[in-house]
Amino acid sequence: MASRTYADAVAALNTLQTNFAIVDAIRNSGKGMNKNSIPEMVEWCRRIGYEPSDFNRLNAIHIAGTKGKGSTSAFISSMLGQYRFPSTRKPERPLLRKIGLYTSPHLRYVRERIQINNQPLSEEAFARYFFETWDRLEEAARAKGEPPDTTAKPGYFRFLTLMAYHTYMSEGVDTAITECGIGGEYDSTNVLVKPTVTGITSLGIDHTAMLGNTVEEIAWHKGGIMKASAPCFTAPQPPAAIEVLQKRADEVPTKLHVVGRNPLLEDVKLGLAADFQKINASLAVAIADAHLVALGQENRKRQDDMLPPEFIRGLEEVRWPGRCETRREKNIAWHIDGGHTLESIEVAGSWFASQIPPARSRKRTRILLFNQQTRDANALAKALHRTLASALQDEQPFTHAVFCTNMTFREEGYRPDLMSMNTSAAAAEKLDVQRGLAETWRGVDPQTIVEVKLSIEEAVGWCKDVAGVEKGDAEGEVMVLVTGSVHLVGGFLEVLETGKA
């Protein structure tokens, strides 16, 4: 048999995506999360050769939350990664060797989701572990007399979770930082039996069809990752959410710690910009510290009035593309954040406002590049306008705005890693959401020049034309805020780095 490639793996993986009609039916049914998902996931684990207790070897750190899960996980991975390297003192115990980081969604390449030592799997490694998982599932299906097609495999995210655990077990990973997909209680990552520590980032209203409409209902789901073997650390939450989390902790039982903003971080220049990242970093510090204690890695002097140098280096060196990131080209500064909930859009807006230089005699051109395909896009757009108008004391925060779909390129369409079958292709082609966004923006800011484009490539090209990048006639640096969707940001980075706009 010819060797199967990364492209083959991505093509096969995309067959596991649920089509839009099914997703929409689930969303509209009001049935919420699948309460049988964990028993089902345990069965999938067994089919590829593992009992959930086998994953105890991974010394997992399990992270749930609405906002900041990826950033917090990245901070933890970067800090712990510093303990892989020799220190000036001879350690009493072996240092960490391999650190896994499992996150979602990805930006440009699906292999970004499964990292080891802060590097995505190579294409070769991804293909190898993908098809090992794929083949084991097909063999198990045959043994049970089931058809070995996609019906004998879990869906997209579940499959990747299985594959991540298989990868980390095969690679001998000794710490696996694992980010939940949606919720916690019924999330497919929650087959972990004995994590060293769990963490819950800031909560907000998101995935309401699955998790509920109140912060209390959402807190209940997120608190489902708590385990008796592990302390749980949470960012500050609304009182009602803390009450639910505390009740869940008492039932487990485990100790719940609320982690406020750590004053020791005030003088640390985080690798992730934006002041709000200090909350995520504070939570990450507490979790990383508890993890090291659980592993007996106390080859450092612990002091309450200072951070270990390894922590400081990790916090400064962390990189997480698409989160409060700035990229510059001739005459244009792209300010990029994948904010996609009401709260995260407001945070992205505040961060962008903080990047704008003090007012000068002549108003500068500022452009918004926005999309949100599946949530209340118009409410998010209004929240962004409200946040920036307030921060800038200017009812016209942008001179120009362009709304596009998440399609990467005009001619080629989606690149395989960025294909999504969970949104309506027909609605995207008709630009229904984008035209609605344009009308909404014109309603709150009639002076803004508004445009609608089918693809990200065309939207980026329009921004460059406005900025005069090609002509070189722009006055100073034009600022562009790219936000509203992680999928938009991923496609945007693909367009920017391939230079196709």
Automatic annotation (TrEMBL):
Record localization: Cytoplasm; Mitochondrion inner membrane; Mitochondrion matrix
Which reaction(s) does its UniProt entry say it catalyses? (6S)-5,6,7,8-tetrahydrofolyl-(gamma-L-Glu)(n) + L-glutamate + ATP = (6S)-5,6,7,8-tetrahydrofolyl-(gamma-L-Glu)(n+1) + ADP + phosphate + H(+)
Which biological process, per GO, is one annotated for this protein? one-carbon metabolic process
- List the InterPro entries hit by this protein, alphabetically: Folylpolyglutamate_synth, Folylpolyglutamate_synth_euk, Mur-like_cat_sf, Mur_ligase_C_dom_sf
For molecular function, the Gene Ontology terms on record are:
ATP binding; metal ion binding; tetrahydrofolylpolyglutamate synthase activity
List its EC numbers.
6.3.2.17
Keywords, comma-separated and alphabetical: ATP-binding, Cytoplasm, Ligase, Magnesium, Membrane, Metal-binding, Mitochondrion, Mitochondrion inner membrane, Nucleotide-binding, One-carbon metabolism
Chain sites annotated for binding ATP: 323, 337
Free-text remark on how the cofactor is bound: A monovalent cation.
Q: What does this protein do?
A: Catalyzes conversion of folates to polyglutamate derivatives allowing concentration of folate compounds in the cell and the intracellular retention of these cofactors, which are important substrates for most of the folate-dependent enzymes that are involved in one-carbon transfer reactions involved in purine, pyrimidine and amino acid synthesis.
* Protein name according to UniProt: Folylpolyglutamate synthase
The upper taxonomy is:
Eukaryota, Fungi, Dikarya, Ascomycota, Pezizomycotina
